[in-house]
Amino acid sequence: MSNLLHTDKEYRRWITEISEEYKRSQIKAATKVNSEMLKFYWRLGKAITEKRSEYNWGDHFFENLSSDLRRLLPDVKSFSPSNLRYMQRFYMLYNQTYKILPQVGEEFKDAPKSIVPQLGAEIFMVPWGHHKVIIDKFSSSPEKALFFVKKVIENGWSRGLLENFVDTDLFERQGNAITNFNNKLPNPQSELAQEITKDPYNFDFISITENYKEKELKDKLEQNITKFLLELGNGFAFMGREYRITVGKTEQFLDMLFYNTKLHCYVVVEIKTRKFEANSLGQLGTYVAAVNHVLKTENDNPTIGLLICKTKDNILAQYALEATHEPIGISEYELSKIYPADFKGSLPTIEEIERNIKSRD
To answer: Which one, 102, 181, 218, 356, has the greatest CB density within 10 A?
Structure first.
């Protein structure tokens, strides 16, 4: 047994209140497991933060607290020293952003308290395992942490997908495309359209060799369409590649056509493997107008275009957008898995590997 349990009356009273509060939260959690437990973790994190600053309970505080809570609640697996530290970090991270109501000095008393942020109750809608990933990555960046909390809720990300996206600079890239949406689309569609853009788009899920051609990149994107849709963001449905559309007596072929269920509109995506050129907007603008006339119904919002190119001059892109009549965004893309053109030829064959192994025997 820890010495604290027997020598400090305040500590003994406090952990007894914790165990009682946990049992009350457990009863309430019968229908809202994640929400009620996270509120309990928040309260305990707040209590730990305040009690540690008020009392001198030694260097092994978390280990002692873990041992004593496990003794009082032997069937509960949540009170490891590591998890208790996460509870404190959980409170400290989001407390930097939100004010808490009520401002309570005694967290665990006879009646359970409903301590919920005035804003951002969404932090209690995300699984604890997801929170631990976010805490580890953004413990000193509450704005980024909340961004990913909202993305988990919005997109229904698994923990694995969350781990993938926290390492892709999504926060910095979101909504950064150069667009004319404010001038060409009504509110709130213009704001929503801007939010779905990124700059740059991350195509790291593609492995490609140097001096790749445009068709090769587009083929790779189509082959990895599920990952491409994840990178585009929530709400995109793939309608087709080289999508044929008849304009008058002429057939036009769109690089990629999507429908966005959040914006309720078609999205024409053109991929260019060169730097941005202003004349590319003329072609894309024509495609956008054609989709509006041929595919768009009265239930759809105006079609938007998205040009994704290798590089761009932001000033030139902005000027070019001012000269077009259609709502268009311009972004760059990034590739990291680029191999030398003779990469495959430089690898040993299976026969060569087998011969080398045999020669060592």
So the answer is: 181
CA angle, corner 323, sides to 318 and 327, nearest 5?
Answer: 75
Cis geometry, peptide bond prior to residue 348 (ω within 30 degrees of 0): no
Q: Report the Cα 98 to chain-centroid distance in Å.
A: 21
* Arithmetic mean of pLDDT, 173-199: 94
Burial of 135-172, coded b for 16+ CB within 10 Å and e otherwise, reads beebeeebebbbebbebbeeeebeeeebebbbeeebbe
Q: Which amino acid is at 159?
A: R
pTM above 0.90, yes or no: no
Question: What crossing angle do the helices spanning 214-223 and 225-232 adopt, rounded to 10°?
Answer: 90
CA-based torsion, 62, 63, 67, 73: positive or negative: positive
The pLDDT score that the predictor gives to residue 102 is 39
Instruction: Specify whether the backbone of 209 is left (phi greater than 0), alpha (psi in -120 to 50) or beta.
Output: beta
Joined tokens for residue 346: 């430089």
